[in-house]
Amino acid sequence: MPTNHNRRGGSTRQRPTTPPLAPRPQDGPLLTLEVERLAYGADAIAHTEEGKTVFVQGGVPGDTVEAALVQDGPSFSKARVTRVLEPSAYRVQSPCPFASVCGGCPWASVSYQTQLAAKRDNVVDALTRIGHFDPERARRLVAPCIQPGEPWGYRNKVELAFERRGQRAVVGMHDAGGTGVVKVDRCLLLESRYQKLTKAVSGALSYLANSHGLAIDRVGIRASRRTRDVEVALWTEPGPFPRAQAAKILGDATSATSIVRVLTKGPKKARRVVGVERLSGAGSWTELVGDERMTVSAPSFFQVNTKGAEKLVDLVLAGLAPDESDVAMDLYSGAGTFTLPLARRTSWVDAVESYGPAVRDLRRNLERAGLDNADPVGGDADREFPDSDADVIVVDPPRAGLAQDVVRKLSGQPARAIAYVSCDPATLARDLARFEQEGTYAVESVTPVDLFPQTFHVEDVTILRRR
């Protein structure tokens, strides 16, 4: 059962139940399982009577379920729930009618307090299992998971998938199995006023693709409740494209303030952006993060949860306590979520970002903000590591975490504190162990922030203090 929280997930009302799911041709034998806990992943964990681990799709801690075996490996198995025999006190009825078939919110049937507790537990587990931290120390270091906003309607961005079924184009969400596309008429994770954009974009693009025989890699929708900006980005390979028709059809369907085409080349899992075409409108999207107005181009990374991004900034600034005499360093700076507030509070910021579109966005955001005390450098953080001595440092790397050489170079800095923002507990735990092995910095605190309710993902802000 979940730990470190009360039973607010349950109630005296009738517990939600689920009808049995139709068997699939690939389903194996049926198992009766007692679900134990949530994994760091879309599934829950149970064990057979023989003690073998089973990852259970659709399970909630405390459930007794009937589950069809879908994969039987030597060390673990995978199964999907076909019937809930005895629902857990932590099981809730999801407000999303597509939750069982869409892959966007795998924890939608889990009470929100249970989700928060599980995310903290997963961070503690990563520190002990991967970082080899003492279990008691890990529990002391990791704070309760913070809820920055509502558990639904929090996203400023969703992505739609595209596939062809014969001559027909289908635009929708990736299904729960990750192998196909399911059509939805709304996404309850999007900001409430924009939840039906998914249906509008899906219908418009299906019509456009069927009329012109188009192939589209994916579709990005960004929508801001604060600025009212809406951008639709079509990711395609270079080649002929009905630009005017796409702009008109999508514009009529969505009233988007920006419609762009992102041109990509290369293998499917390693595509690179070779250009962005503005089809109509501004050609970019803006959002307000705290007091900062940020402009972001379609290829650039930006946190999908705006209130969550603000909470990350608050935690970073509180942990670093920068002042006007400080020199700051911001590695993996993106479009400037941390660079801009640091530039307002310090004498200088060295910002390094490897992704070209994000570097251009950062320069534009600094110029618009009237800040000339930051130097955005494009390139790999290891090769372009700043040669100045920093007083405070922020690192916000991608899921792969920090290279060993970057940890070593950071450990050679005279900074009094480092704020490490991470989206992956496993690589965070590995890197924190490396920092402590270097001996210059010790982990002071780890604060999980729930930027992704209804999913297993969690963001963490770690403060490392100079010994």
Automatic annotation (TrEMBL):
S-adenosyl-L-methionine binds at Q303, Y332, E353, D396. One of its GO terms (biological process) is rRNA base methylation. It comes from the Bacteria. Residues 1-10 have a biased composition (Basic residues). Residues 1-28 are annotated as: Disordered. One of its GO terms (molecular function) is rRNA (uridine-C5-)-methyltransferase activity. Keywords: Methyltransferase, S-adenosyl-L-methionine, Transferase. Residues 24-83 form the TRAM domain. InterPro entries: MeTrfase_TrmA_AS, MeTrfase_TrmA_CS, NA-bd_OB-fold, SAM-dependent_MTases_sf, TRAM_dom, U5_MeTrfase_fam. The active site is at C423. Belongs to the class I-like SAM-binding methyltransferase superfamily. RNA M5U methyltransferase family. This is 23S rRNA (Uracil1939-C5)-methyltransferase.
